[in-house]
Every structure is written in C-alpha cells, then in structure tokens.
Amino acid sequence: MAERNQYGLGRYVPQDVKREIRSRCGFGCVICGLAYYDYEHFDPDFKDAKEHDAKGMTLLCMQCNQKRARGTLSAATVARANLNPKCKQTGFASELFDFGPEPVEVNFAGVSFIDCGVLIQVCDVNLLSFKPPSEPGGPVLLSGLLADSTGATTLKIVDNEWYAGDENWDVEVVGPQITIRRGLGDIALQIRVSPPHAIAIEKIDMQFEGYFLEGDEKALRISSDGRNWSTFSAVSIRSCGVGISLN
Fold first, then answer.
1. Is the peptide bond before 133 cis (omega within 30 degrees of 0)?
2. I need a labelling partner for 215 at 20 to 30 A (CA). Which of 3, 50, 200, 240 fits?
C-alpha cells in the first residue's frame, strides 16, 4: 500500500480531523456500527485526495473497508451511510471482546482479579462480572457498567459485547486500546485488551451510587465522599465470589 498518493498526501490523518470524523459517525463503522474502524476517504478516494478533509472522509470497519478495496462497496453507498451512520441510528457503537474458555485476568487500575465471579460490586450492583461459558469450549462472558465522574454511563458490556454510547464526547479505538473522553484531554476510561485471557482498565474516573473510583495502571482509589480516599495498589484477588464490595 502506497504511503503517499499522486499528490504527495500521506496517510497520517491529523488528530483534530480524526476526532471530527469519529464524532460525526458515532464512533463506529457507518455501514454496520462496529467500533473497530479505519478512516476512509470516499469523496474523493484517497488516491485522488489533496488533503484530509473530514467532510469527504468517514469510518469503515476492516470488513467494509476491504469491500471498498475490492470494488464490491461503492463510494455512493458509503456516502449515503455517512449521512445516516449506523451508530447514530442505534445510539451506540459495538464490538465483541475476544475471550477464551479459561479464566480471564482483569487488571483494574492496580488491582488484579483472577477467576472472580464479580470483580466490583457497588450497592448490590455488579460493575464488572463474569459468567461461565454458555456452552462447552465457548468463551467466558464479561458484563459490566462503567460510568464517568458525573455518573453518566460511558461503556456498557453485555456478555462480551461492548457498547459505547454516541453521547460520549469522544471514543477512540487504536489497536487493542479503547479510550473514552469527557472532553479534550479529559480521559474518563481507558481499556486495553489482550485476548484471549486478559483485559486491563488502565485509567478510570467514575462515580456510581455515591462512590468515586479513580485509578491508573498503578493504583485504584475509592471514596464515598470525594475527599477521603482508600488506595489499592499491587493487590491480587483470586478465586472468589465478589472481589470488592462497596455498600
């Protein structure tokens, strides 16, 4: 694949242009709504583009992008979908976490959970929980509800399928990392997946049922009033029904 087109335009798309495209498209493929995507020139195609113009670009998943490359998906169809993106129709972008049948290790901002049914429970609500495979050899099933510092839901997970609502300010997916922002430079949630046996919450800043949770890769801090904090660092919780319960 050529790094530059006939006009010398490179494939690097400026960050502000990417964010404009993500926001307009609802953070997922405009055709099918999948949350893993590429930035696609369609008006004109990349080979004929003289600049990275957000108005002539959109989001396509790898499968839809390949259809464009093979000529089985027209620029006209992409243009129509760009005007009415799938994620804007449904209200969210979605994708599957790829887990195997073995216990999954979750590193939650300084706390490691291995083979735990419920990772964190707040006022009897499971923020993150696992279920056994629904059939032999199938994947373990993660479900959860993650919010931001205002209590608004940023990411919902139902049996390994995750949903990022288009009401978020920004949702960026780069390789295995998902970053959700409340505003410019303001990260509410950052997740990195390492299929099939690990997932890491690398950064979180959320409020739920009166509890505040803040964390990075080194430590998890929890408070019931936003002033007095308990810190968990280098903690490992293994083979238990409920890892951390706040009530």
1. no
2. 240
Residue 59 in tokens: 């989001």
Q: Specify the amino acid at residue 135.
A: E
Quote the CA–CA distance of 15 and 95 in Å, as a whole number: 23
Residue 120 near residue 215 (C-beta atoms within 8 A): no
pLDDT at 1: 65
- Report the distance separating Cα 170 and Cα 55, nearest Å: 18
User: From CA 118, how far away is CA 241, in angstroms rounded?
Assistant: 6
The whole-model pTM stands at: 0.92
Q: Distance between CA atoms of 32 and 96, rounded to whole angstroms?
A: 14
DSSP run (H or E) holding 58: strand 57-60
Both tokens of 189, joined, read 């949630």
pLDDT in tens, 197-220: 999 999 999 999 999 999 999 999
- For the CA atoms of 111, 116, 122, 123, the dihedral, rounded to the nearest 10 degrees, stands at -150
User: What is the number of other CB atoms lying within 10 angstroms of the CB of residue 55?
Assistant: 10
Residue 160 φ/ψ region, left for φ over 0, alpha for ψ in the -120 to 50 degree band, beta for the rest = left
Residue 174 three-state SS: strand
**Mean pLDDT, rounded, of the chain:** 94
Scored b (16 or more CB within 10 A) or e, 93-115 reads bbbebebeeebbbbbbbbbbbbe
**Do residues 47 and 6 lie in contact, with contact meaning Cβ atoms separated by under 8 Å?**
yes
> What local confidence, expressed as pLDDT, does residue 79 receive?
96
Q: Residue 178 corresponds to which tokens in the numbers above?
A: 């998902």
Q: How far apart are CA 7 and CA 140, in angstroms?
A: 49
